């Protein structure tokens, strides 16, 4: 009788987000998975996404990180600035840099009319925040910055915030914060894969006000570029690489929350002005070209090399 295949029969294990447990039971499970893989002497590839977990910086996550640093055969990073992360200093000899892959054809075509669903004007420019809504993503600051510049920059513009919200108490707080803000539409629900393309295509551009405390890489930037859209965002690690190679984004820097709000607002104003004039198309083309240059297909040999001894 043929034995049922076991995941531990695999030759290579590629861990993503593995050091960012939401609770202790998740840590215990992951620790024993990792321990079994280490003891079986399988090849380990670890992709580093963040400096630390966005919401969960529990001490036990550092235990997982230590074992991944110590026993990974390859540590994969997606941006040059990631090489400066302090905990990587002793392990640079096994670090490999390959940029974030593309989202070309990742989501199916959608017949959803987002404007009709949300009750929005057919001509209103939509500034889109799309993805999981968490406290570290600065949605309150984004809404305030948008409302501060909307009347002078583009009075008909809409900030559409979409995504599931956690924890539950944060949803209550956020609804109260966004309620009554002119031009802000809040859709606190998970956007299924079959509708993502519709949301992306309706956007004038996307916005992602990341925190420097944890973020190294932006999947939103690559997703937007895959759909010929651009993004307003701060200069986190992979954003610096994208901007250096393409100038396809609206990028800003900040030192504190007050400066973040001001500089985000200034960049929103610039992006809205470029949208109205049509100049935003230049940014969109440049970002799309960057995505194509660093697509999964273009970097195929580099990705395969992660799994070869």
Range of helix content: 40-55%
The beta-strand count equals: 10
Specify the overall morphology.
globular
Instruction: Enumerate the spans where pLDDT stays under 50 for 5 or more consecutive residues.
Output: none
C-alpha Rg (nearest Å): 21 Å
pLDDT averaged residue by residue? 93
Secondary-structure element sequence? EHEHEEHEHEHEHEHEHEHHH
Please state how the strands of the largest beta sheet are arranged side by side.
Answer: 7-6-5-8-9-10
Q: Count of DSSP helices?
A: 11
Largest sheet: number of strands, sense, barrel closure: 6 strands, parallel
By helix and strand content, what is the structural category?
alpha/beta
The portion of residues forming beta strands comes to: 5-15%
Cα(first) to Cα(last) distance is: 33 Å
Furnish the topology, listing elements before pairings.
Blueprint: E1 12-16, H1 24-39, E2 43-47, H2 59-71, E3 74-77, E4 95-97, H3 114-118, E5 126-130, H4 139-153, E6 158-162, H5 168-178, E7 184-187, H6 193-202, E8 205-207, H7 219-226, E9 231-234, H8 237-246, E10 250-252, H9 257-277, H10 280-293, H11 300-305
Helix pairs in contact: 1-2, 4-9, 7-10
Give structural notes:
- By secondary structure, the protein is an alpha/beta fold.
- It is built from eleven helices and ten strands.
- Helix 1 runs parallel beside helix 2 and helix 4 packs across helix 9.
